[in-house]
Amino acid sequence: MIDKKIIIAIDGYSSSGKSSMARALASRIGYRYIDSGAMYRAVTLWAMRNGLVDAGVVDADNLVASLGDIAVDFMPMPDGRQHTLLNREDVEEEIRRLEVSNNVSQVSVIPAVRHRLVALQQAMGKSKGIVMDGRDIGTTVFPFAEMKVFVTASPETRAQRRYEELKAKGVKSTYEEVLDNVVTRDHIDETREESPLRKADDAVVLDNSYMTVEEQDSWLLNLFNSIIAGNED
Ligand code: DC
Hints:
By secondary structure, the protein is of the alpha/beta class. It is built from 9 helices and 10 strands.
């Protein structure tokens, strides 16, 4: 039915549910899904494992000098999900831990890290047919994306969702810890100099604080269908 593939950029705050909705849309329409946050998390994990993060302070010089040693990729799984690979090791589980979440903003403010990952993301979108979620996808990675969505929800709603997720995975944390992490990351993401989290002028805003997963999935699919219909005119 749809022969013209487009690029779909889904940006927004941490734990806004954007990854789940981006993944669901991609699988529904047969596009490739890329979680760009996972790439920043993988680089952060590498830095932590290599002693380049000390009490929340990242040794940016050494990390930048080592970028050539860090390969980040994705591997499709039988259940349709994609697992993140760090130098070919499956680190999907490990990169979601709170210790990584607590350091990832510091790593993602480093311009050379961003340049490298943005170039990789742009290469992944070369043949279109991609849904990518992150913070700067509609503004920096794919400023010409045909469909851009900016997802938001209150910090408390997002912290509660993230807390439930971690609890379900058996990860020990408190709601207060998670809320603190959400608020701190929002601040760093919004105020960093290099491509801060910002709604692209042509992005459509979705506040999903009071939406069910089904409601947001169908909202997104409707938007996609209307853009495709418009493109074919
Ligand atoms: O989406 P996430 O919470 O897994 O992202 C992890 C971190 O990576 C987030 O705190 C900010 C950073 N990030 C970024 O700077 N740019 C992106 N395109 C995606 C994520």
